[in-house]
Amino acid sequence: MIPVTRFAPSPTGRLHLGHAWSALLAHDFARRHGGSFLLRIEDIDPGRARASHVDSILEDLIWLGLEWDGEIVYQSERLDLYAEALERLKGGGLVYPCFCTRAEIAAEVAASAAAPHGDGPLYPGTCRTLGPADREHMAAERPHAWRLDVGAALASLGGSPLTWIDAAAGELPARPEAFGDVVLARKDAPASYHLAVTLDDAAQGISHVVRGVDLFACTHVHRLLQALLELPTPHYHHHPLIVDAEGRRLAKRHGAPTLADLRNAGADPAELAARLRSGRMPAGYSLADN
Ligand code: GLU
Questions:
Q1: What CATH number belongs to 79-234?
Q2: Tell me, what DSSP letter sits at residue 83?
């Protein structure tokens, strides 16, 4: 199989070493096997995505010597595709409107003493049990997200086992139920990360998804969406994250230098790329264990 990989940054800030390493890994994997390396800008978060960051991302990748193939894909130009998929899931009764605020979800979770999960509390399913009349009435009047009914979704697949292949861990059973009823369309954005990334990886013919291990857990959800929307399942390679001397993930607020900072300080991009490629992180940075 000739691989097709991608780098899919969200233009919410400048790129740092972690992004550079991820992009290099995806790029090199494709090139090593005579494949293609695509660039996708994940710019559908209205509160955080900025056009100016897109320009700086392109500048940084070119500085690093990374060339992508074909046209850049912008998620903001693909909203119809996401809406169509959501309609299909609505037609199958696999999503439901959710009217809860973050505060309401947190309060319910606290009351039920459920353990928080991942980046936020597991959704307790409040709106899943609304009757059709309430749903219709409330949906007409109140802003709402759309959540995947994971139980109904799994049942609709008739219990056939879902698996995916991780380069390090091998074949894994998909466990989307561990994440609860994830959001597929937000109140303020027509598609969530999960829906858009799954559709785009398929539409772009991505054969190997190379991304940070922080997104490992999301793959369980993406695998379920692939099954529901009859999309192919790529292979996944989740690489470790680069951390600073205190073991923290790179972030502007922790003073992690951006690629622009390194460039302005006179860093040689070829040398930086060679270091990252050989796994020798710049002084003060290392790879996290997991
Ligand atoms: N846009 C995501 C990010 O910047 C990456 C998405 C992915 O690789 O699946 O974190």
A1: 3.40.50.620
A2: H
